[in-house]
Amino acid sequence: MLPMIQSLHAEDTYSLQRQEMILAIERMVADTRDYTGRASLAPEVMAAMARVPRHEFIPEERRTYAYENRPLPIGSGQTISQPYIVALMTDLAGVNRDSVVLEVGTGSGYQAAVLAELAGQVYTIEIIEELGRNAAKLLQRLGYNNVTVRIGDGYHGWPEQGPFDAILVTAAPEKIPEPLLEQLAPGGRLIIPVGGRYDVQSLQVVEKDRSGRLHTKPVLPVGFVPLTGDH
After folding, report:
1. How far apart, in whole angstroms, are the C-alpha atoms of residue 92 and residue 31?
2. H-helix or E-strand containing 46?
3. Which of 41, 128, 177, 230 is least buried, going by the fewest C-beta atoms within 10 A?
């Protein structure tokens, strides 16, 4: 019985830590309201953040820090994004159960899991094969059956599954990839950090109106790993 008791204790600890993470996100949302124009995030987004077990997406040796409001290394030179950034990008995307979403940069699978709590279907692309395969197995084990993972270069999007109601990019290109703009549905939103590795990057929202015109709005200074690939 001892292993079961330890497991229950760990889950209780993680549950409390998730609650603390939610409070930390709420404080940071308030602190950045002058940038984002948001004094709070949608309740359904915060509920999704509270449900997804972030510790499952973090290497075991770093799980002590799983619910701290900061990015963490996940191997292969990549990171799992800060919870505040995951919540903000999800909120900016404005997805619902009718939404088909593309994520570029699966990483650990954490952002895809949060999106899967809210969207109808999530397609996610990872260029690093080991990360992509591990994320696919984990998402399947956790029951996220509305997520499809592909190994490939996300710069080119996933045209066979488009157009997309929302596209989230979790690595920074120096300029917005044209294929992603083409695959954005009318009325859709692209959430993307833009800038070089050593530049000040800007998290941007690109909206495509019903006539196909694009409207870009900078939201927040950020720091993401660079978008890699043959582009």
Report:
1. 17
2. helix 43-51
3. 230
Count of C-beta atoms within a 10 Å radius of residue 174: 13
Q: What is the CATH number of the domain that holds 62?
A: 3.40.50.150
Query: Of residues 15, 76, 81, 108, which has the active-site annotation?
Result: 81
Instruction: For residue 93, give the nearest of 112, 74, 79, 71 by alpha carbon.
Output: 112
Question: 161: which DSSP letter?
Answer: G
The answer to whether the beta carbons of residues 126 and 107 sit under 8 Å apart is yes
Task: With respect to residue 152, please indicate whether it lies within any of the assigned structural domains.
Answer: yes
Active site residue 81: yes
Cα separation, 151 vs 3, in Å, equals 36
For 137-185, write each residue's pLDDT tens digit: 999 999 999 999 999 999 999 999 999 999 999 999 999 999 999 999 9
Contact yes or no for 184/210 (Cβ under 8 A): no
In a domain, 190, yes or no: yes
DSSP, residue by residue, 68-124: SSS-EEEETTEEEPPHHHHHHHHHHHT--TT-EEEEE--TTSHHHHHHHTTSSEEEE
Where do we find the tokens 């109808």?
A: 120
Global pTM? 0.93
Structural domain total, the chain: 1
**Calpha distance 160→135 (Å, rounded):** 21
